[in-house]
Write a structure and sequence with these properties.
Two copies of one chain form a homodimer. Helix content of chain A is 29%, strand content 25%. The first copy, chain A, is of the alpha+beta class. Chain A has four domains: 193 residues, 3-Layer(bba) Sandwich (FAD/NAD(P)-binding domain); 102 residues, D-Amino Acid Oxidase, Chain A, domain 2 (2-Layer Sandwich); 53 residues, no CATH class; 180 residues, Phenol hydroxylase, C-terminal dimerisation domain (Glutaredoxin, 3-Layer(aba) Sandwich), CATH 3.40.30.20. In chain A, helix 2 links the parallel strand 1 and strand 2. The termini of chain A are far apart. The interface between A and B is medium-sized, with 33 and 34 residues. Chains A, B: It comes from Polychaeton citri CBS 116435.
């Protein structure tokens, strides 16, 4: 007993954190930035004395730009004037030792993908990191550098802070031991935490390629130097990626496991790689004004068996998945790892959700990493076999989503899949408690809509489709999917169709929300009576924001006449669905149509805090719609919901 | 002789500037920012100890946003999250003392105006000033505060620096006397410089209104509090303007010359104005959480007789024109005053243009101010008579420019004019040496196109129409009108139609550019052989940038095959005109069509450094097109151009 008391005493003396984050690369920074904004106490360390100075990851995919905008960070990133890739060019050897020639180009994010930003943004990782670091500092978090993790253990000394972590200053004997609720490793491929946990990396194809990567300023007459290019030549292969500040990145394959003299430790000097590039790019010349960064690294596909063992110590980013850099997915996958974990930890720690939702971090994100590795392999294979011909590309590129009814060829299908994947919009989470399906605990409730039923275009587990609407309060033309920031709230979009048709349904919805055990009433803010009138997103609860979209013209929408009190309070989230959309040209209410709802009756979409669709529900008169929401949230919330229904 | 020598000696001791700018409001800041970027030595003083803290001007019109973007300042302005006005609502008294009701709304920048940003941006003037001040500081200019002008004289003591200026610290005896090439007054309505020059203000309607202006945060159930509103009631009139940070500005008319007890010195306390507002806004309530700024001022329409007497001492902004703040034109007109003068001073001082072009500052900008005053009066009259009815508004708003063939009613015509004017796109400069017309010295050359001839939509003296194209070098979708920044260069847009058709014309154009006395050869950079390969805009001359737009798909445009050497050097300014434009839906090459050029043969548009169209020329084989350009520039350039033609 004495030793237990002593241990408790010791635990009470030690500094305590909500989370200790190791590594300030993309995954660690995104997680840290979210949790800092939401008020958590964070210790964030990084081994490097300063943020990334040169090189490393640089591609922000269209879907990641949505995320950065949703966090309010896009403007600061774009202020660095990054390069933008709209098209990819293919270059192949000409017959008879005449060097390379262009065989085609395609859109990097073709029209059939409904992307708000149909391009890849290229910017050096350090500049991206600095945007996050500035935001962290606004919220009182400073990255502690250069510090590294020395040890950790999940013990019983403090139930609230079950993890003990020891960190030390690099090249110094200085150490700190702290306790924390969570430990996160965003350490990159060489992870101390992963090693300590004994988590194995599955190496699909261990070290299949050795790549040289060179950032620099060049002089060349190669016409596509500002485009992304895949160059095959009789002298080897190069990938060209434009960069900010007139730089260009070249990926040059130095060796691969298909070479007869394959050696995964093979390397090459800057001069050797430049000489190889000169040969490959003939008949064009290329000379370097300066080389900003050069690195050679062997790349093997690897996937961690587990992302956590105990839902207390988590890993993400390169720590869990490594692959070729060519598809530009590393940083983007890391961002989404960080985002996925952030709101789940927040919902557990704020008392909203059951601890079990933390399990979905691994199931959701490891699936994506698996797909990324599959894609990485098939992508390479697809284009090593042959480049697409002009007809195939134009056939695939010019289709607008949903409008193409003709049967695609196998090649075009793969092409489309690869575009969707690289853009980030191909990411789809499997069904679970958060992502409704016919296997969901609430499946017997007929008000839930599956993809096959009401909604041809919307499905759970994917990101909400972008749509443009008019905000009623100030007549601003806005991007609906961006209207609620990444603030930890579920976004409940009430598509209200024609006001005359849904008037009663909206009244009943409102009345049901007010019932004692509704999902809203159960998680009402303790300061609800003192909330500032200008609070737009969370006047009632920190976990829900309501938005109502009418199929009516803006001047005809009198918010206080059409909406009852609770819904009317979301005055800044009432919209007129009257903006033309090229993706659904034959409809009047384009946002309704994109969601698969009737223009008359509408429906309800529940979007998770990270922007992925959770469930889709019919909007009906009576309490049914809110009952269904109570059921949905009730499957993973901390409190019982909707009991009042049984009393009626 | 001795005294002359002494005077010269004294002049050589004194600090010398290219320009002394008095006042750091919008006009002074814009002028200063341009000239600082272009390397001029500037003394810039302001009487106020700090930039505008609260209140004052706040409306950035669509056309001004184009300008700010062209200067690279838009992102920093938008980072302040300004309010945006897309619609204006009209409120009128209901019959029988029942308070006000909404009678209609209209778009603040309707579809028939081809605007890149169809909204007004509302942001407190101080935040806008700070963006300019930060840019100035990057270029080594700090506003000297609080300092004011004490005296100046245009004498003969130093021909290069003919103006002597004495400035003094406010509330101190500290003084400085300097010499300068130019003196500019952006002092505002009470101008010492204007007074000293003896320039009179013409008061059309001296002090016609007394306005109260109040910025604050309110509580209200008035539904349009986030819209721009014109409210007429039986108890008086209010204009509502939304602001950043949940603020709202109310303009409340306290007295006007039509009142029976008219007194231009009438004033009112905050409480009186709030009480008046409460009466006007019935049946809605309005209460103030806080008042950030309140001011009462008598407004008279005034216009300075002259903007300069000697083309050395200039004035601009409120110093030259005062009017009601309701149309939100003050800051916007000031910006354009500053921009207009900046590049003209630059062209004279850099040796490019004849000093006589400085006369066009007054003729161009005073005309606009006159129109503003006319507009200000007629705008008030138009809507005091009646508000437009729904049919009229929808008739006017939904027409896309150029597509409406039906005859407009007088009211709709005036409505359209007023929208064009307030958006800033109605500004048109009259013909002069810079703005070609049938009265231009070069009028006998048949290659010049007038509006009546080739180009139905394009005319000289107006801003270049916006158009979206694809940049060939990197496949980026770009806004053509923004591709050349505000850097003091003329922008020569070569619409090259079909490559096969214009191939010879482009070769001949290129060859003629290379002739000894072409406008390009005459103003070649002295360091032309050492220009960095990444210089995009001015590889040959600081005064010209060439852009070539083909009616061809991007992958079919091989720049080095289609363009001869000089034009090919503008590698980043070659475009494919293949982007659909809703304003000209029935054309393939929308940018060609917008300029009024044939999709096959193209044509050339010369755009002044400030974005206004200077002249329009046929693209022909032979040297004719360049000969015409030589003639055009030759009318105001410092060197004789195109003599080589006579020798041929």
């Amino acid at each position: 007993m004495a030793s237990e008391a002593f241990a408790k005493h010791r635990a009470s003396m030690i500094e305590k954190y909500d989370i200790v984050i190791i590594g300030a690369g993309p995954v660690g920074l995104l997680l840290s930035t979210c949790l800092a904004r939401w008020g958590y106490k964070i210790k964030h360390i990084d081994m490097r004395p300063v943020p990334t100075v040169t090189g490393r990851a640089d591609g922000i995919q269209p879907r990641s730009l949505d995320l950065l905008r949703n966090m309010g960070l896009k403007r600061a990133i774009m202020a660095n004037e990054p390069a933008k890739v709209f098209e990819v060019a293919f270059w192949d050897p000409r017959d008879g030792d005449q060097g390379i020639h262009r065989t085609g180009t395609w859109a990097s994010c073709p029209k059939f993908i409904d992307a708000r930003y149909p391009f890849t943004t290229l910017l050096h990782q350090g500049l991206i990191e600095r945007v996050f670091i500035a935001d962290l500092e606004k919220n009182g978090v400073t990255i502690q550098r250069p510090w590294r993790i020395l040890g950790f253990q999940h013990d019983r000394e403090d139930e609230e802070y079950p993890i003990q972590v020891t960190v030390g200053k690099v090249d110094s004997s200085e150490q700190e031991t702290v306790r924390t609720k969570y430990l996160f490793s965003g350490e990159g491929a060489r992870s101390f935490v992963r090693e300590q946990l004994g988590v194995k990396m599955q190496h699909k194809d261990p070290i299949a390629h050795v790549w040289g990567v060179m950032d620099g300023v060049v002089q060349t007459n190669f016409p596509d130097i500002k485009m992304k290019c895949t160059i095959h030549s009789d002298n080897g292969s190069i990938m060209v990626i434009p960069r900010e500040n007139n730089m260009v990145r070249l990926y040059i394959q130095i060796a691969s496991s298909t070479d007869p003299d394959w050696n995964p430790r093979k390397t090459a000097t800057t001069e050797e790689v430049q000489a190889a590039a000169k040969l490959i790019m003939k008949p064009y010349y290329i000379e370097w004004d300066r080389v900003e960064w050069y690195s050679v690294y062997p790349i093997g596909q690897g996937l961690a068996d587990r992302y956590t063992l105990d839902e207390r110590v988590f890993m993400g980013g390169d720590c869990c998945h490594t692959h070729s850099p060519k598809a530009g997915q590393g940083m983007n996958t890391a961002f989404l790892d960080g985002q996925n974990l952030a709101w789940k930890i927040h919902h557990v720690e704020s008392g909203f959700a059951d601890r079990s939702i933390l399990k979905s971090y691994e199931t959701e994100r490891r699936l994506i990493a698996e797909r990324l590795l599959d894609f990485d392999a098939s992508y390479a294979k697809l284009f090593s076999q042959r480049h697409p011909n002009t007809h195939e590309v134009s056939q695939a590129s010019n289709q607008i989503s949903g409008s193409g009814q003709q049967e695609d060829s196998e090649f075009v299908k793969k092409f489309k899949e690869s575009c969707e994947f690289t853009s980030g919009y191909g990411v789809a989470y499997n069904p679970n408690v958060l992502n409704w399906s016919r296997e969901h605990p609430t499946a017997s409730n007929p008000l839930f809509l599956s993809t096959e039923q009401g909604s041809a275009t919307l499905r759970t587990g994917i990101i909400l489709k972008p749509s443009t609407v008019i905000r009623v309060a100030d007549a601003n033309v806005v991007h609906l999917e961006q209207e609620v920031p990444l603030n930890g709230s579920y976004r409940i979009y009430i598509y209200a169709g024609l006001p005359a048709t849904t008037k009663q349904a909206l009244r009943d919805f409102n009345a049901a929300l007010k019932k004692k055990n509704s999902f809203l009433s159960a998680y009402i803010r303790s300061d609800v009576s003192r909330v500032d009138q200008h609070e737009q997103h969370n006047p009632h609860s920190h976990f829900f924001t309501f938005a109502t979209i009418f199929n009516a013209s803006r001047p005809d929408i009198e918010i206080k006449e059409l909406l009852p009190d609770i819904l009317a309070r979301y005055y800044d989230h009432v919209y007129a669905d009257t903006v033309f959309d090229v993706h659904v040209p034959n409809t009047k209410a384009s946002s309704h149509t994109k969601m698969g709802f009737s223009e008359e009756n509408g429906g309800v979409v529940v979007v998770r805090p990270d922007g992925y669709v959770g469930c889709i529900i019919k909007l009906v008169e009576g309490s049914g719609t809110v009952d269904a929401l109570n059921q949905y949230f009730g499957t993973f919330c901390s409190k019982p919901l909707g009991e009042s229904k049984a009393q009626l």
